[in-house]
Amino acid sequence: MNGIGPRLREERERLGMTQRVFGDIGGVEPNAQGKYESGERTPRVDYLAALAAKGVDAQYVLSGLRTPTALEGLSADESGLLGAFRELPLDDQAALLHLLRRLANDAKPRQIVRPLTVERQSFLKEAMR
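Structure for Helix-turn-helix domain-containing protein, as requested:
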């Protein structure tokens, strides 16, 4: 869709809201909402900020480019790392994956299992009584 107005309408419809509800969220009258969607008027920043707080993709409304969504359960840092990883050339991605796997493997706690001595077995039996 071309223009802020049609994208604003698309976002409103995506969220299943009426012009009245959308206008109320943004703090404008329904006729202003209609003018925004028709392209007669340009929405204010505070209006877009209020809508963004309710789930509107303001970046999409303004630019036509969707905001990339974080994967379910990822922190902002994890999502940022994934975004940076995706921008790397494939060879660098492969090298980074190799490094991360090595680091993760090295970070795993190593449990050394030693047979219990007779004294240690006796001590543990006493301690558990």
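The CA atoms of residues 67 and 107 lie 34 Å apart.
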